[in-house]
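# step 3/5: fold
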Amino acid sequence: MSEGKETIGVIGVGWVGLVTASCFAELGHPVVARDIVPEKVAALSAGETTIHEPGLDELLARNAERLTFTTDMGELLERARLLFVCVDTPPTRSGDADLSRVRAVVEGLPEDGGHVLIMKSTVPAGTGEAIRRDRPGLAYVSCPEFLKEGSAVADFMHPDRVVIGADGGDEAAADALARLYAPLGGEIVRTDVASAEMIKLASNAFLATKISFVNEIANVCEEVGADVGEVARGMGLDQRIGPAFLRAGIGYGGSCFPKDVSALKMLAGNTGYHFQLLNAVIEVNELQKRRVVQKLLGRLDSLVGKRVALLGLAFKPQTDDMREASSLVLAARLQGEGATVSAYDPVAADAARELLDGVELCDSALDALDGADAAVLVTEWPEFAELDWAEAAGRMARPLLIDGRNFLDPEPLQAAGFEYEGIGRATADSPAPASAD
């Protein structure tokens, strides 16, 4: 079944590593995936998926014979030559990327074993140069991932581009990696290691900038009576701008944008360069999460003793990832204003339970809305569009909805009796824009 296909090694089976391992198995490669958490390895070996990602369960089941999960680094090194490093690089207290897991992997690799270290983890530019300087006998290739949670399997199998960075002496390793990705059809971008590392950071920082920009535009739209949806549509038709990432809301979150924007800002700062634009991007994103509380105060005057329901907790739909989720800040701010908070998310409740002290986690959206003085749509799960909003209005103490993602159609909600307010969205019952006088 896998005749002629090279065995792939994957180090770290978190979100990126598990998708990478499963997709290479789908392409017919035997895969050995190693992780240091025995419970995770045991679960995956038993066919249990450890993350929520559409299509991943099916890949794991279909390719079980090709996938080996282990805690044994020796087994990985014995069976695989191409080693994809997919370990976390979380932010430190300074905002720099924590490379301790990457260093631990490198220190465990033999220099003369004929292995190729392929860096999928997001690392600051200069990391590859430092590794090659410290381990000159180790072949090193940078191949950053560009997967989106919620569509990671499709992103891997149908990439826009595959970036391969290699410096002198490692071109043969880069050639082998290019052949590995060739069946997927994405454009192969061959460059040096430092440029490959920067491509990943720059890409995420630019997308985060687009989000913060359109959120700033949304806030201005609220002051002048414009509709940010119409503004973004008109902007996006310009081919130089494009429509992607121009949806106003309550800010970005997740495992990539906050971490990578901060890492790029600190990388620049460590060289003596002050990246002013990224400072603004970060500040806007943090303030945007808090604007919802001001909207509620504008409607309710006080939140003391009020019950507020949060619809959705994960940072985006189709994932259970709670890292840097807007719901975390929003819940804490609501509680700080004296409100009690109920919440519902179709898949992230277990992940949220340890993070949301004092929040009542409900089994359905209607249960979360029961008796609420207001609701905030935080994550645009498709099931919220199908909710019986007329019944929801009847259950609430006051049918007030702040649509934090501009996901719902205001007219049916208003017909059901709701007070509706979006983000930068002109609606019939929105507060009047400020006077120009």
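# step 4/5: annotate
The chain is about 40% helix and 15% strand.
# step 5/5: archive (pending)
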